[in-house]
């Protein structure tokens, strides 16, 4: 249900706003900004409450929000013309705002669900068996890959042969049923795993350990003096404590935000997490940007669907490679091998920029299109004549409505040229092949965070990790907005490959600190996954 909604909400917003991407862009900006600002706070809430309460609350909020959005969208589709006439269209605008707000709440609840189930519950269920944890992580990722294929296909077929309103009703009904099933499954897992109920006591134990360390480190003569000072200051303290308590409640979200990022920076796996976040600063994925570019290069929708299916297959192959490599070479070295494999495949994308058929033109300013729209008041393009299709397609960054044929001069004998497809073929070959290393690397960093972050900090650390991922993802969208024309896409590819390289360099530095001279001693398990600075009892021995 969650995957269906993520796919459908953008389509619904485009349908509502007259085939414009404005509402979709606003929704993406709101979602990214919300997780960026509230990721640490959501993670802190996960840490401070019982596992069952967090899982049940986030599950209910997420599904109820999706159901409400579906109902509101059905009303808008039914009565859109009437809503346009009421209050000069302001009522319809308020409906748009309401849909985006509730959809954002659903995404935040989905983030909380992912943190508590995929970063906390799964670690407790696996226990001390690291191989079992790796297998469970890989299985969850395979399920995620399959739902990424099946959910859009199901919703797309319903909307194609039915209508958007039917699609809204189907998603609302599906989420209602799935919420009940998921709720029961969570309850069964919680009952069969008694250790899931021991979260609060473990947090208290970690806090007591920190207090004991502080007490042992203090000189004993000074303790008596300090007690006297505390007793003398105890008289006028109560009113100050009340004032401090009110101020602390107001400042608590800001303090949590600051403490979360500080704690994330101080983690022994900080560089590994940053390396993963840098992989989000890329246009080399199957999102709207890459598919839009593919349309300008003459690829049809059927070819793109086949390419997306191939990328899902290679992604699943990456999860299989992760489990095999982890057993043979250890967890940390698996990340190194996966990163090297991903970067080697992305070299094909960098080469494609300079191959025949690439629209890269360094004589054209990357900002030419946006400056023309904003400062020169150039009108939006219309459907061009056959002789003008080439110019329109490459000047606007949008397809020239050619149904899969390369832009040309209208002569059917001149349009099917194989040479221009060399560049785009290399580009997608690199993107698809790189999914093996990408998903293996993602699973590696995920398990490093699971194994080496204290239980009392799992929520807030993973919340900040999600914030970092969204921050780099937001930057990549801003990069595309600033340089949207196809002539600049080659530069975006090179920038993306550079960010991927920087991310893997960060991970290499982490691995060097963790393993030292044993970094390249492959085919043996890692003696330690992190340095000696990690908390006791949380070091990985895979």
UniProtKB/TrEMBL annotation:
Keyword Lipid biosynthesis part of the UniProt annotation: no
Subcellular location as annotated: Basolateral cell membrane; Membrane
Keywords for the protein's UniProt record, in alphabetical order: Cell membrane, Ion transport, Iron, Membrane, Metal-binding, Transmembrane, Transmembrane helix, Transport
GO molecular function, one term: metal ion binding
Membrane topology, from the record: Multi-pass membrane protein
Keyword hit for Lipid metabolism: no
Transmembrane portions of the chain: 20-46, 58-79, 85-109, 269-295, 301-324, 336-355, 419-438, 459-482, 488-508
A Pfam cross-reference name: FPN1
Highest taxon above the source species: Eukaryota
A cellular component term, taken from the record's GO annotations: basolateral plasma membrane
Family classification: Belongs to the ferroportin (FP) (TC 2.A.100) family. SLC40A subfamily.
Role: May be involved in iron transport and iron homeostasis.
Protein name: Solute carrier family 40 member
Organism: Nothocercus julius
Gene label: Slc40a1
